TrEMBL record:
Classification lineage: Eukaryota, Metazoa, Ecdysozoa, Arthropoda, Chelicerata
Broad class of enzyme this protein falls into: hydrolase
Listed EC numbers: 3.2.1.51
Residue stretches making up the Glycoside hydrolase family 29 N-terminal domain: 15-351
Record-annotated membrane-spanning stretches: none
Occurrences of domain Alpha-L-fucosidase C-terminal (ranges): 362-452
Gene: LOC106460894
Full protein name: alpha-L-fucosidase
Length: 458
């Protein structure tokens, strides 16, 4: 039997007297809850049965069985008996070292303000005991525990972090989905039996404040009943006032409708956008899931990570930084090291990131590798922040965008002294960096200047 919420989502009950109707015009009119724009930094977690082979990527099953790519076929032929099935990996998804409290500590130390866990990837395996994923979930096979619920509880013990879920609308090999696909989306057996009941379970039981939808691109939003679900989510759900969603709700919908825009993986336009957006990116340059074959050069350096963060927030985006845990539940040391170092950097420079807003300029008009933000709604004194990715030669930095006067002040976050600067005839300014030895540098990667009394602040 479907609950009332299920019937609403499936379009069987009219959404009368509701603020948001199941139309894109109405759904797109909902203001994005302010917590999301203020947060700026999130953590993405790709974890599932694909973490067992941990070869190639989280698309292992599809690349092996559907596309039959040679590296995946050869890997299976070398290491597994004939007729081995993907489902046979599930008992090895043991998670014996999974400690959600430790994960929450790492994410909290990273400075992230929200966490998004893959509740179900395209393989269909759910990390919670879904009633519509019998024997293909983390309680029935594998670790025999509610992985999602345990992490949600651990995250919510932290003061500054919100919990969210990624959910794939489709599944590569589910027979009902394949039937609907062969029927040119004229039937909705999979949506009614699987996709929508799962989403409703997730919302009603775990109350995620982010729903990061994916796996939408093959079918139209009318097949998925996306607008019906979102109207219910915004009007009737237990998270209706705080939840945020992305834009992946059907073919042709991404970058056009929904909540914040993701457009495509690792979306980073490098310029200010008209709509709130997010750069979902990963520390392993080649995979979202854990890979045993990754080499050191496959991981983003701290310089690359901080540079991406500066570029993203300057252009009004959020950054969602992905890690892929192992099959036994560990976040490997290089991921932990990157996240903890990011947290150390944010502990110095966070006021230029959290609650910040794009300034008139995103880049400097003269000097490259410079990004700007300005103070947000709670800023006591209007300030412009300058992200300097490379320490300037001779400790002298020339900027063309800010206009200053004799009452303006420049400081470096983490350094007490006020910096000297000089204007030239063209209106540009030369800033003199402090003479600092390595032991007193406020941070190791990128430095942020704070400018007060900027004439062209607006």
């Amino acid at each position: 039997m479907f609950s009332l919420a299920s019937l609403l989502v499936l379009g069987f009950v009219a959404l009368t007297n509701s603020q948001y109707q199941p139309t894109w015009k109405s759904i797109d009119s909902r203001p994005l809850p302010s917590w999301y724009d203020d947060s700026k930094v999130g953590i993405f977690i790709h974890w599932g049965v694909f973490s067992v082979p941990s070869f190639g990527s989280e698309w292992f099953w599809e690349q092996w069985q559907q596309r039959k790519l040679k590296p995946f076929v050869d890997f299976m032929d070398r290491n597994y008996k004939p007729n081995f099935t993907y489902a046979a990996f599930a008992p090895s998804f043991t998670c014996e070292f999974y400690d959600p409290e430790q994960w929450a500590d790492i994410f909290n130390a990273s400075g992230a303000r929200y966490v998004v866990l893959t509740s179900k990837h395209h393989e269909g395996y759910t990390l919670w005991p879904s009633k519509v994923s019998w024997n293909w979930n983390a309680v029935d096979v594998g670790p025999k525990r509610d992985l999602l619920g345990d992490l949600a509880n651990a995250i919510r013990k932290k003061t500054n972090i919100r919990f969210g879920v990624y959910h794939s609308l489709f599944e590569w090999f589910h027979p009902l989905y394949l039937y609907d696909k062969s029927n040119d989306w004229k039937s909705q057996l999979f949506v009614k039996a699987k996709t929508m009941p799962e989403l409703i379970e997730l919302v009603n039981i775990y109350k995620p404040e982010v729903i990061w939808s994916d796996g939408d691109w093959e079918a139209p939003d009318t097949y998925w009943n996306s607008r019906g679900f979102l109207a219910w989510l915004y009007n009737k759900s237990p998270v209706k006032n705080t939840v945020v969603v992305n834009d992946r709700w059907g073919s042709g919908i991404a970058c056009h409708h929904g909540g914040f825009f993701t457009c495509q993986d690792k979306y980073n336009p490098g310029k200010l956008q008209n709509r709130k957006w997010e750069d979902a990116m990963t520390l392993d340059k080649s995979s979202w899931g854990y890979r045993r074959t990754a080499n050191l050069e496959d991981y983003l350096s701290m310089e690359e990570l901080v540079s991406t963060l500066a570029e993203t927030v300057s252009c009004g985006g959020n950054i969602l930084i992905n890690v892929g845990p192992t099959h036994d539940g560990r976040i490997i040391p290089i991921f932990e090291e990157r996240l903890r170092n990011l947290g150390k950097w944010l502990s110095v420079n966070g006021e230029a990131v959290y609650e910040s807003r794009p300034w008139t300029y995103q880049n400097d008009t003269v000097t490259p590798n410079i990004w700007y933000t300005k103070g947000g709604k709670n800023a006591v004194v209007p300030s412009v922040y300058v992200f300097v990715l490379n320490w300037p030669k001779n400790n002298q930095l020339y900027l063309g965008a800010p206009v200053l006067n004799s009452n303006s002040k420049i400081s470096m976050l983490g350094v007490k002294d006020i910096l000297d600067f000089k204007k030239d005839a063209t209106g540009g300014i030369m800033i003199y960096f402090p003479q600092l030895t390595p032991d007193v540098l406020p941070c190791q990667w990128a430095w942020v200047l704070k400018m007060q009394g900027v004439v062209n602040y607006q």
